[in-house]
Amino acid sequence: MSDILQQMDADDALALVQLVGAACDPQQPLPLLERRRLLASGLAQLVEADVWMSDAGYIHPRDPADSTPVALCDGGWRSAAERMEVLGRCMHSDLVQPIQAHVRPARERGEPVTIHRSCAIPDTEFYQSRAGQAWNALGFDHFVWAMFPLDRCGHSALGLHRRLGRPRFTERDRLVVHVAWTQAEWLHRESLNLPIQGELVKLSLRERQVLILLLGEKTRDEAAEVLRLSPHTIGDFIKGIYRKLHVSSRAQLYAKFLPAPVANQLSPNYEFTTAEAPSLTGQGS
Asked: Which tens digits make up the pLDDT trace of 230-243?
């Protein structure tokens, strides 16, 4: 870390000390999610990112390229519709898998890593790929992605994004993000309930996509819009999630996947109606 700090100028170093200190200050009565938001949004300002997305996530034990993010917070959107479009695209494997494959060796060694998009996917390959074309169609291009490993089954990640037409992130930007993200270890480790990781194996890919949205406080109709499915189909997936995870309410779902300090911060106002709620005696889907 000392070698990395020597590559930074004094202004950047001071800004990072102030940012990490504010996010992790034990004397400030900030909820855990707000501390993550403070750190992530502050980094977005330092590197002039347009949009940022932060999450803690679980890694599938049999497929390290398959991850399920929870404890999501984000910012910088022009509209709610843009946010839902981008979050939906971020769930697709054609964008996620090349990044996960690139950082897998560092995760297996238990080392944090921060990369540019062009490090994981060369420009020519990215712009010709279905993922790259879809990403550009949403109005975004270059990004920096930072990952802090949590044992061998989880991670705490941050994505910082620039819109199409803006300059790409520099090595200075990558270093700024890397230093700050690696210096908040306790914040990362308190954001995830790691023992529950094995529960995700029970869920299908679609069920895990719906789960991500439920943990992000999305309603059934909002989840349907993101995944471009009918509300009825989403309701069927919700039934399957509840049945397989042995829960009967959104609050129980929060408590199962998130540590108490995080789960208690999430709104209880997103409970499903009787028509949407799963039948605990039925088979579901």
From this structure: 999 999 999 999 99
Q: Residue 279 domain-assigned? A: no
Q: Report the Cα 118 to chain-centroid distance in Å.
A: 20
CATH number at residue 219: 1.10.10.10
More reliable by pLDDT, 237 or 279: 237
Is 110 found in the same domain as 21?
Answer: yes
Is the backbone of residue 73 left (phi > 0), alpha (psi -120 to 50) or beta? beta
Question: Exposed, middle or buried by CB within 10 Å (0-12, 13-18, 19+), for 273?
Answer: exposed
Instruction: Compute how many other C-beta atoms are within 10 angstroms of the C-beta atom of residue 98.
Output: 18
Last residue within a domain, chosen from 192, 220, 240: 192
Global pTM reads 0.72
What domain count does the chain have?
A: 2
Spatial distance between the Cα atoms of 233 and 145, rounded to a whole number of angstroms: 32
Write the CB contacts of 264 (distance below 8 Å, at least 6 apart in sequence): none
**Domain span including residue 60:** 2-192
Share the mean pLDDT of the chain. 78
Instruction: Specify whether 141 is located in the same domain as 11.
Output: yes
Residue 169 lies in a domain: yes
Residue, of 90 and 263, whose pLDDT is higher: 90
- C-alpha to C-alpha distance for 60 and 3, rounded to whole angstroms: 34
Distance, in Å, from the CA atom of 2 to the CA atom of 82, rounded to the nearest integer, reads 39
| In the predicted structure, residue 133 carries a pLDDT above the cut 60 | yes
- Close Cβ partners of 171 (under 8 Å, ≥ 6 residues apart): none
Contact status, residue 116 vs residue 168, Cβ threshold 8 Å: yes
**229 and 111 fall within a common domain:** no
